[in-house]
Amino acid sequence: MTTTPEHGRGPLQVTRRRQLLDALHRDGTVRVSDLTESLGAAAVTIRRDIAQLADEGVVRRVHGGATLVREDVAAATGALAVTGAVGMLVPSLDYYWPGVVRGAEEAASRHGLTVVMRGSGYDVEDDLPHLVRLVEQIGVSALAVAPRLDATTTEHTLAWLAESEVPVVLVERSATVGPHHAVMESVVSDHTLGGAMAVRHLASLGHRRVGLLLPQHSPTGGHIRRGWLLAAQECGFDPGGAVDAVVPEPREQWDSALDAVLDECLRTGTTALVVHADAEAMALVQRCEDRDISVPGDLSVVAYDDEVAALFSPALTAVRPPRRSLGRAAVELVAARLADPGRPTHRVVISPSLRVRESSAPPSRH
Fold first, then answer.
1. Domain of 340?
2. Residue 213: in which H helix or E strand, if any?
3. Of 6, 93, 109, which is closest to residue 49 (Cα–Cα)?
4. Is the peptide bond before 344 cis (omega within 30 degrees of 0)?
5. Does residue 5 fall inside a structural domain?
6. pLDDT digit string (tens) for 303-329?
7. CATH code at 144?
8. What is the DSSP code (8-state) at residue 235?
9. Mutual orientation of helices 32-39 and 11-27 as an angle, nearest 10°?
10. CA proximity to 28, closest of 112, 116, 113
11. What is the distance between the alpha carbons of residues 37 and 35, in angstroms, rounded to a whole number?
C-alpha cells in the first residue's frame, strides 16, 4: 500500500520530519497552521510528528506549535540561552510605543523570553510602584523601561533601578546615576539626527527659512530642536530668523496657537516647518486649508514620528524613528546581560529614517 501524508509512516514521514526540523532551525518556533500549508499535510499529521519529536527530546510542544529546545535554538539562530520574563514599562499604550513593544516581543520570542508589559503615563508622577510590582510581585528577570525623567521622583526612581538585582535597560531614555555619574544601559533613537535630517531635506529643496513647531512637555522635543539648530547652521542659514514655536495644551487651544504660528510664518518669510508630532502636523495643515495657505506650495511641512503621516492628505513627508528596532535592541541588551552579567555597559543609538511624500517641495516664493 502506498504511504500517504495522513498515515504518517515511511518515506513521506521522513521528508516531513526533515522539513519540519528545517523550519524550526530557521525560525526557532513553528505553528501547526503554517506547517499544514507549507508541508501539504493535515493538522493531525503535523501534531503527530511534533509529538514524536517531543518524545525524542528534540522539540518542545507549545500552544499551537513547537519550538526547539533552548540549546538547539541557540545553535540554530544565534540566540542566547536565557530564560525568564522582561518587564516593560512604557508611557503610552496607544501611540508610538506599541511598535516598540512589538519589536521587543519579536526579540524575546527569539531568545525564549516573554514580555510583561505595563503602561504608565506622561502625566504619572511616580513610576516606581509599577517597577516594584514587576520585579517583586510578578518576578520578571529584567526590565526594559521608559521612566519619566522630568518628575520630582525621577532621582529616586533611577537610584532604585540602578540598585535593582535584575538587569535594566532604559528605552528612549538615557541617564547617569550616583556620585560618579555611572551610565545606565540604554537604547535610544537619534532624534537629534532626525531633526537635522528634516532640515537638510528642506534645505536641499531650496528653503532658507525653516521653522520648528513642538508640543509642550515633549521628551523628544529638545533633541529635535538641537538637530534643527545644528543643521540650520550647517546649511548656512540663521534659525533665529524663522518660526520657533510651541503648541500648548490642551488641544482646544490649538486653533488660535496655530493661527499665531502661521501669522509668524508669513511675517518672517518662513517657507517650511518641521513639526513634532503627526497630530500637530496634521492640525497645522488643516489650519492652512482653512486659511487658503497651500501645502506644499506656500508652506512645506515635515512631520516627526510617522505614525499616521502617510495616511493624511496630502501625505506628509516625515521622519520615522526606528520603533520596532528599539524594542528589539532593548531585549537583545537584556538577553546579553542575562547571559553575561559582567559585560561592559552598552549604549545603543539607532538612526531614524526620512520618508519623502507630498507635503514638501521647493518654495514658491523667496
1. 85-190+324-348
2. strand 210-215
3. 6
4. no
5. no
6. 999 999 999 999 999 999 999 999 999
7. 3.40.50.2300
8. H
9. 130
10. 112
11. 5
Q: Are 202 and 195 in contact (CB under 8 A)?
A: no
* Structural domain includes residue 51: yes
Q: Could you tell me the CATH number of the domain that includes residue 69? A: 1.10.10.10
CB atoms within 10 A of CB 275: 31
Write down the pTM of the prediction.
0.77
Cell numbers standing for residue 92: 503610552
Q: Which residue has the higher pLDDT, 49 or 348?
A: 348
Question: How many CB atoms lie under 10 A from the CB of residue 217?
Answer: 12
Burial class (CB in 10 A: 0-12, 13-18, 19+), 98: middle
Q: Identify which of 252, 274, 255, 356 has the alpha carbon closest to the alpha carbon of residue 314.
A: 356
State the Cα angle at 135 between 188 and 219, rounded to 5°.
30
Cα–Cα distance for residue pair 28/76, rounded to 1 Å: 8
Rg of the chain in Å (alpha carbons): 26
Number of independent structural domains in the chain = 3
Spatial neighbors of 164 by CB under 8 A, at least 6 apart, are 135, 143
Cell reading at 184? 545606565
- In a domain, residue 167? The reply is yes
Q: Read off the amino acid at residue 65.
A: G
Residues 110 and 121 in one domain: yes
C-alpha cell at 281: 502636523
- Distance (Å, rounded) from C-alpha 116 to C-alpha 58? 28
Question: Strand, coil or helix: what is 123?
Answer: coil
Supply 138's cell numbers.
510578578
Q: Give the model confidence (pLDDT) of 167-219 as tens digits.
A: 999 999 999 998 899 999 999 999 999 999 999 999 999 999 999 999 988 88
Q: Does residue 277 have a cis bond before it (omega within 30 degrees)?
A: yes
Q: Amino acid identity, residue 192? A: T
